[in-house]
Amino acid sequence: MRLRVEHITHYRYDSPVRYALQQVKLTPKERPGQQLIHDWTIEIEGGAQQLHYTDHHGNGVDLIAVNGGTSELVIRCTGEVELITWDGVIGPHRGAMPLWTFLRPTPLTRAGRGVRSLTAELGRDFANDIERAHALSALILDKLPYRIGVTDAETTVEQALAGEGGVCQDHAHIFIAAMRHLGHPARYVSGYLMMNDRTRQDATHGWAEAHFEHIGWIGFDISNGHSPDRRYIRVATGLDYRDAAPVRGMRYGAAQENLVVQLQVQQ
């Protein structure tokens, strides 16, 4: 299956910006099952690419400097990705980061009383660890319904569990924290998902991967209740959302920003 992506990130500032730098992770990973990337381009208006490199997680990173005095920045990503049939199994661990690194908690994924209670509720009656992980995924969605606007990018797993709902980032973070608590390396994945009921979207997607002995990494989309399939494009991975965020940045000056995202993913 070949998916076409058009992703526009549009920043508007209420006054000219003196200086700003954006870190962009928007180039899909090449891997078994996702190897052929056709004409993937990143175009910039209101700034310029300063550097491209591969980080310690194997993510392609572009650093974009915003032109001094500008009031708008547009980052436009377009391209096609060829996806081969797969069932969410990524396979053996690769890359520069040792596997034990993915057992390490981060400020967003630190397990506390809520996560410990969640894993205790699972019990032990499972044929194997993968079955338990799927049960955990279903339990998280039951405990924390998908709800927009009640959490943000800085919400921790314990704050999310104490709330009234969450989004894909929260679901993935809770799953990651719980799997690490159970002794399994786990990581965050950001990327694209082709929806069955729409072409236009207002955000990228996020899910989790956990590592199992003799099999390797397996993906879990907690928000949608299944493992990723050919509708999913893996873009970046990390210990949590901060590591894999599509766009992160900093700026000098008092300007306030308004962010609009336009995204289309279609076959």
UniProtKB/TrEMBL annotation:
GO terms for molecular function: peptidase activity. Keywords: Hydrolase, Protease. This is Transglutaminase-like putative cysteine protease. It comes from the Bacteria. It comes from Sphingopyxis italica. GO terms for biological process: proteolysis. Transmembrane segments: none annotated. Residues 160-224 form the Transglutaminase-like domain. The keyword Protease applies. Pfam families: Bact_transglu_N, Transglut_core.
